[in-house]
Write a structure and sequence with these properties.
The chain is of the alpha/beta class. It has one domain (4-241): Spore Coat Polysaccharide Biosynthesis Protein SpsA, Chain A, CATH 3.90.550. 42% of the residues lie in helices and 17% in strands. It has helices spanning 17-27, 46-53, 70-83, 100-111, 131-148, 164-173, 181-191, 213-216, 226-241, and strands spanning 4-10, 33-39, 59-63, 88-91, 118-125, 160-163, 195-202. A seven-stranded mixed β-sheet has the order 3-2-1-4-6-5-7, with helices on both faces. The protein is globular. 37% of the residues are buried.
Length: 247
């Protein structure tokens, strides 16, 4: 059975993905770590970069035939890690907002915890994002509290670590077409009373030449793009329609 998988959804990250993966790989030497990167039908040269770097590290590329979006790509990566029977799974975005050294430290904290059924959540600190992103994060915390009566410090954090058994339970309960799986996982974890370890981790400015990344592209600095606003409406609609999670 394989040891730890680092799952990462990516879309149009040609400028940073190689550096980020190589940095992570250097900090996980000796851990039997493998990488599962879900390429969400990038329109730039991300796939070429991933193919090239796969020769230098243990990397499996999962290619979406159509653009599924971040949430569905993340779920596909988590399901792939379960299919390949990894014992532990780290999920993180491919935009380089965390250092490889900090992620390795969180993994060591995870390994030193004696509770086999818990989730480690990386709580983003020192964030310098625009006000509307911070406001959205505050709303997500309230949404999770409203359903679980537990208030997460970072409801939508992209950095989490799971044991295989815990991840199986959580993925089985997340709607298969969800665009906000991290939010569901935060809520389900608290509803079923999992032990949750919330560890602060420094958020860094995005690597590469695009400060906001390729997903949202704000047309005016400090204001959300229409794409971001549209996604928020879709996410709220999904959240409001869900009456209960599958057992």
């Amino acid at each position: 059975m394989n040891k730890v998988a680092i799952v990462m959804p990516v879309y149009n990250e040609e400028s940073i993905i190689a550096d980020f993966l190589l940095e992570l790989n250097s900090h996980f030497v000796g851990t039997d770590a493998s990488f599962i990167v879900v390429n969400d039908k990038s329109s730039d040269s991300t796939l070429d970069v991933l193919t090239s770097i796969s020769l230098k590290m243990n990397l499996e590329i999962v290619n979406n035939q159509v653009n599924l979006g971040h949430g569905r790509s993340l779920l596909r990566g988590l399901e792939k890690a379960l299919e390949l029977e990894f014992q532990e799974v780290i999920s993180v975005d491919g935009d380089g907002h965390f250092s490889g050294n900090d992620i390795r430290k969180l993994y060591e904290t995870f390994l030193n915890n004696t509770d086999p059924g818990f989730v480690l959540e990386g709580v983003r600190i020192m964030r310098t994002e625009p006000f509307y992103r911070k406001f959205t994060s505050s709303i997500t915390r309230l949404l999770v509290w409203g359903r679980s009566r537990a208030y997460p410090r970072d409801a939508n954090t992209p950095l989490r670590i799971y044991s295989r058994g815990t991840l199986e339970k959580l993925v089985a309960s997340v709607p298969k077409s969800s665009v906000i799986p991290n939010l569901h996982i935060s809520c389900i974890s608290r509803q079923i009373k999992l032990s949750i370890l919330e560890i602060p981790i420094t958020w860094m400015n995005r690597k590469g030449f695009m400060e906001s990344g390729s997903s949202w592209k704000p047309a005016v600095r400090f204001f959300p793009s229409w794409r971001f606003v549209s996604f928020c409406f879709i996410a709220i609609s999904e959240w409001s329609r869900l009456k209960r999670y599958p057992k």
